[in-house]
Amino acid sequence: MPNYISSNLGYPRIGESREWKQALEQYWNQTISKEDLLKQTESIRLNNLEKQKKHGIELIPIGDFSLYDHVLDTSAMFGVVPKRFAYKGGKVDLDTYFAIARGTKDAVASEITKWFNTNYHYIVPELQGVKPVLTSNRPLELYKEAKEKLGIDGKPVILGPITYLKLAKGYEDKDFGKLLQSFLPLYIQVLQELEKEGASWIQIDEPIFGTNLSEEILDFADQAYQEISESVSTLNILLQTYFGRLPEYERVVNLPVDGIGLDFVHGDAISLIKTHGFPSNKVLAAGVINGRNIWRADLDQCLQLLKSIDQLVAVNTIIIQPSTSLLHVPVTKKPETELDPVIKAGLSFADEKLEEITTITKGLQDGIETIREDINASTQSLHHLNQSKYRTNRQVQDRVNTLTADDADRSLPFEARIEFQKERLQLPLLPTTTIGSLPQTSLLKQIRKSYRKGEISAHEYENYIQESIEKWIKIQEELELDVLVHGEFERTDMVEYFGEKLNGFTVTQYGWVQSYGSRCVKPPLIVGDVSFNQPMTVKETLYAQSLTKKTVKGMLTGPTTILNWSFVPDNVTRSTVLNQIALALKHEIEALELSGIKIIQVDEPALREGLPLDRNQWKEYLDSAIYAFRLTNSSALADTQIHTHMCYSNFHDIFEAIDQLDADVISIETSRSHGQLLNTFKDNTYDKEIGLGVYDIHSPRIPSIHELKENIESALNIISANQFWINPDCGLKTRKEEETIAALRVMVEAAKEIREKLLLHK
Q1: Global pTM?
Q2: Are 540 and 465 spatial neighbours (Cβ–Cβ below 8 Å)?
Q3: 216-271 pLDDT, tens per residue?
Q4: Count of H helices and E strands in the chain?
Q5: b/e burial code for range 523-562 (CB count within 10 A of at least 16 → b)
Q6: For residues 231 and 233, what is the distance between their CA atoms, to the nearest angstrom?
Q7: Handedness of CA 168, 172, 176, 181 (dihedral sign)
Q8: Per-residue exposure over 316-338, b if at least 16 CB sit within 10 Å of its own CB, e if not
Q9: Burial 116-143 (b: 16+ CB within 10 A, else e)
Q10: N or C: which end of the chain has fewer CB within 10 A?
Q11: Which helix (H) or strand (E) holds 242?
Q12: Does residue 42 contact residue 65 with C-beta atoms inside 8 Å?
């Protein structure tokens, strides 16, 4: 029997009460000092480690904690700082670190994009003109901290060189090998210094191996890990993969490392082992607890899976761990006092997953009977949840089962619809608008909190929402925007809001998860079959429309984004849930149309995010997403204009899918990627209307009119002015009021000047 060891891959950074978020934002708002920030975040970091120790985790990850993003941490460690931030060398100071992520008055922030197929965003490294140097050995510093202050001999975690370089920009593919050779000595120095300090394991994260890498890159990986392996003697290297199946499984598991981490939840690793085996001279780190969902593990099934693994491999050690870092789930379910006990009993957040890992490890080490009570509790909880009222709505199931291809088509093709829409809307050339949400002040958040606590009445709360809508309709009119929004002041979050309104969902009180920077979201839980209950957005949209003669957009979140940004049941296919959501949203569009709303925006920022890492699985996912989006909008009248919005993803490889969505207008981020997305439209024909976000809302800086005119004119070299909309790159919910007004004023003025110039030369 192999030796079993419990381990974790990473833990949520945010703290049980989002103390991390609060500390960061206080520092950015200059209400606490740098010393206070570092002291507070150190306390959170050490508490996270201590909790894992108390739960009995034997291999505790060190260095997964971050002040913003782990990819940015890697860049800072290697001195990868874009020239515009005037970095002078040496250890990257805190303000430069945050400037790369958030921008400054004089320098645009680095690009932000999705971390593989998750809703976590990372800061894209910019390698152009950069000569990497080791500015500080961050894993070593944090390893020593854990050892000295907590007595934890942890497992340092570092982002692997192949993944880091593949996620970076600013170099040509032919230079990958040369770049890799410039980084390898730095990685080796980090490892050798850790070895000297006494570290026994290091976790090198290489999720990029779940994608379709070329033979050349795989050869580079062989060479790189050969050099790394030869550079240390007592430090064990665990190469960790996650997020899906390994297309080149045999190449990866035979890399010259001491252990391989495989995802047995999403990666179909068991069938790969059955087919190709697993090296007997390596440690197998088995990700058997779902690190990306919040449902309680079936301990009996996990044990059966591990029994099968044991029969298939001939290794001396098996590490029991989650399938991914627990960064993607909330911290703990303990404070969730308002959930139905049946639902709560079926949940497992980060702390509960640690318990599951140590329980399984104990059962394997000491005998199954020692954990029999835990096995029975998990089986019973899941049985009660699956047999509950939430899980069966025959009417919804029958409707989904009878859907056909024709159900997802609008009455007329785009080229006919657009003529009706132009006649109805009467918009100018280069119409201006925003993406949807407007600033949510601390007062609004406090009033919402008071309403939820019952301290103010529903009438008082609705009055405040209406006052906010009225205020911002006036501001938008004064700014002379062409198409207005109601601002979404009634919404805590673009997905959670719909989770509170649709049948089949429930929401948590404290189930926060990091999305980007200090921004946390609270994904709703899909607990059963999804269906429409009553209109969700009509009241506020109609009120806004009653205040102006200009067109106000109805604002919905699309089916794929709701699915990808929710926790989904694991006993039903995702495509089934997706179509259930689409049918529910279809009812909402019909309700908005009946109320006279002319433009309806169905946002899909998470469409690309859900793509499997393996391209061979893309078609099935995209076909489902396209069908659900079209199903949502299928009953919209020809003169109702359907918009959608996507942000912070690489779109060039799903361009055809974007076109097949058949939205009348699409808005896409292009500001942080410095216009690179324009090349996609240069290389492909797109006949529908489009808004390329002309400024970055995730940075507090106010763009200059020169900058915006330059962005717009660059786009107009590729896209016809008759197709082009002017808008920010994302919603404005997180920005301050004064920043928002100032930036929008510049945007509208830039659009006016270019519009006048175009009309003059017509």
Answers
A1: 0.90
A2: yes
A3: 999 999 999 999 999 999 999 999 999 999 999 999 999 999 999 999 999 889 99
A4: 27, 21
A5: bbbbbbbbbbeebbbbebbbbbbebeeebbbbbbbbbbbb
A6: 7
A7: negative
A8: eebbbbbbbbbbbbbbbbeebee
A9: bbbbbbbbbbbbeebebebbebbbbebb
A10: C
A11: none
A12: no
CB 450 within 8 A of CB 456: yes
Domains 3-330 and 419-493+537-760 share a fold: yes
| Long-range CB contact pairs, 40-44, < 8 A, 24+ | 41/65, 41/67, 42/145, 44/13, 44/15, 44/19, 44/20
Q: Which of 493, 492, 502, 508 is nearest to 528 (CA)?
A: 502
The answer to whether 370 touches 359, Cβ cutoff 8 Å, is: no
- Among 643, 631, 13, which Cα is nearest to 331's? 13
Place of tokens 């098996």: 318
Would you give the DSSP letter of residue 758?
H
CB 267 within 8 A of CB 241: yes
Tell me whether residue 234 is exposed, middle or buried, using C-beta atoms within 10 angstroms of its C-beta: 0 to 12, 13 to 18, 19 or more.
exposed
Domain boundaries 419-493+537-760, corresponding CATH code: 3.20.20.210
CB 696 within 8 A of CB 675: no
Is the alpha carbon torsion for 107, 113, 115, 120 positive or negative? positive
Q: Where are the domains positioned within the chain?
A: 3-330, 419-493+537-760
What are the pLDDT digits (tens) for 473-493? 999 999 999 999 999 999 988
Residue 750, both tokens: 């830039």
Q: Please, which residues have CB within 8 angstroms of residue 422's CB and are 6 or more apart in sequence?
A: none
Q: What is the pLDDT, as a whole number, of residue 205?
A: 98
Of 70, 266, 645, 698, which residue is the catalytic one?
698
Is the four-CA dihedral 304, 306, 312, 314 of positive or negative sign?
A: negative
Residue 732, phi then psi, degrees to nearest 5: -105, 15
Helix (H) / strand (E) containing 506:
strand 503-506
3-330: what fold?
Answer: TIM Barrel (3.20.20)
Q: How many residues are given for the chain?
A: 762
Does residue 698 have an active-site annotation? yes
